[in-house]
Design brief:
The protein contains no helices and 13 strands. A hairpin with a 5-residue loop joins strand 3 (21-25) and strand 4. The protein is globular. It has 143 residues and is mainly β. Strands 3-4-5-6 form a 4-stranded antiparallel sheet, with no helix packed on it. Strands 7-8-9-10 form a 4-stranded antiparallel sheet, with no helix packed on it. It has one domain (2-139): Neuraminidase (6 Propeller). The N and C termini lie far apart (37 Å). The protein is 0% helix and 45% strand.
């Protein structure tokens, strides 16, 4: 994965991988999240984050569905078993810390087809419920 400046400056390699997937740029443009799966080296599989200016990519401990919000927090619904309720966490790339935002039943009824998003200010999440196909909105912060 490369960043190619439009001003003609040399390209910057951001990450290596057989097939980076799910590439998402943060709202500020400072960070890129992506995942690797079925790599020739299986230890490289997982969710990664890298600065758009370059630097060493970081592999996150958790894996799951992710969206940017607020503008540099990566919201993550960690992979859970079939009978587990969904939780929601936020990863701050500036501090490399993950905080659980909603520990249990973050998305009542489950998320249909990975159909969810976070408001730009990071205060709300909207999702399509797997239970009733309705659109739901849940608070992420109390402020």
């Amino acid at each position: 994965m490369w960043r190619i400046p439009v001003d003609g400056a040399p390209p910057v390699q951001l990450a290596e991988g057989d097939r980076p997937r799910g590439v998402r740029l943060s709202a500020s443009g400072r960070w890129v999240a992506f995942y690797l799966a079925f790599e020739s080296d299986p230890t490289r599989d997982g969710l990664w984050i890298v600065g758009s200016g370059g630097g060493a990519p970081r592999r996150l401990e958790a894996f799951g569905s992710y969206r940017w919000g607020s503008p540099d927090l990566l919201f993550l619904v960690p992979l859970a078993g079939p009978h587990d309720s969904l939780s929601l966490a936020a990863y701050d790339p500036a501090t490399a810390e993950t905080q659980v935002i909603r520990p249990d039943d973050a998305f009542p009824g489950g998320i249909a087809a990975n159909d969810w998003s976070v408001s730009p200010d990071g205060r709300w999440a909207a999702y399509r419920s797997a239970a009733d196909a309705a659109l739901w909105v849940v608070p992420l912060r109390s402020d």
